[in-house]
Design goal:
Metallo-beta-lactamase, Chain A; 261 residues; 20% helix; 7-stranded mixed beta sheet; disordered C terminus; 13 strands; binds zinc ion
């Protein structure tokens, strides 16, 4: 049976935030799981943070914007962020999720059919004729660089520090510009329902991540989902999360450590 949905003209939409920053997203895909893909233009190299589902060519889409070596970074291995990594030559990810990317591990990427998280109704239009969610696969990609806590990515004009902030997944990384106090946060924090019960998530670790992040000077957050926000909203989101998770009965309150006090 023919799928009645139209095939889209362009799978990606690009928004120019500034001369050196673009937000790209998959505007025909379900808003709730639609990732922000960030292209940062530097002086000596460009960075691409996340690559989306991998159902259309992001490399082609951004080709006219790229005039320097490009490093594609997976904020973490989930399919809405790392699905398109295989298209790029220079690929970076945290070591704890590198093997999952190398293997194209659909379980770690959360797109194995049994999860039921890649659904036909999430596609308003199709990325190409004949696209079917039943054939969706998470593409394996060979990381060429591992990014760890404290690594510096020097773009000439500016530099980013890699922060390892697990909790949502073991290998979540954020990129932090200490000078401008901008944080590219992936799924570590965004202005929406935070997911800490996924396979690979860990609530006590998430709490520790936020306790660390609360002390970091941040002016602007460019998150993995939804809109950007400033320091007040960031602090509010983290405070709300910590308050909810520290309620009596929550794991952090009933851990052996807490009971021994
Ligand atoms: Zn995620
Ligand atoms: Zn996500």
């Amino acid at each position: 049976m023919q799928n009645p949905k139209p095939v889209c003209d362009s799978w990606f939409a690009t928004q120019k935030i500034s001369e050196s920053l673009y937000r790209i997203h998959e505007h025909h895909y379900w808003e709730w799981n639609r990732a922000n893909l960030w292209l940062i233009k530097g002086e000596t190299q460009d960075l691409l943070i996340d690559t989306g589902l991998g159902v259309a060519s992001l490399r082609q889409h951004i080709a006219t914007l790229i005039d320097k070596p490009l490093l594609a970074i997976a904020s973490h291995v989930h399919f809405d962020h790392a699905g398109g990594m295989h298209e790029f030559d220079n690929i970076a990810i945290h070591p704890s999720e590198a093997e999952a990317l190398r293997q194209g591990d659909a379980n770690a990427a959360l797109c194995a059919p049994e999860y039921g998280w890649v659904l036909d109704e999430h596609f308003a239009e199709l990325p190409y004729p004949g696209f079917a969610v039943t054939q969706y696969t998470f593409n394996a990609a060979q990381p060429t660089q591992l990014l760890q806590e404290g690594d510096i990515l020097d773009l000439g004009s500016r530099a980013f520090e890699v922060l390892h902030l697990p909790g949502h997944s073991p290998g979540c990384i954020a990129l932090y510009d200490r000078h401008s106090q901008e944080l590219f946060s992936g799924d570590i924090v965004y202005d929406g329902e935070l997911l800490d019960l996924l396979p690979g998530s860990d609530i006590p670790t998430y709490i520790a991540t936020y306790e660390r992040l609360q002390k970091l000077p941040v002016e602007t957050v460019y998150p993995g989902h939804y809109h950007s926000f400033g320091k007040d909203r960031l602090q509010q989101l983290m405070a709300d999360y910590l308050e909810a998770k520290r309620q009596p009965g929550c794991p952090s309150e009933t851990s052996p450590l807490a009971e021994s006090k």
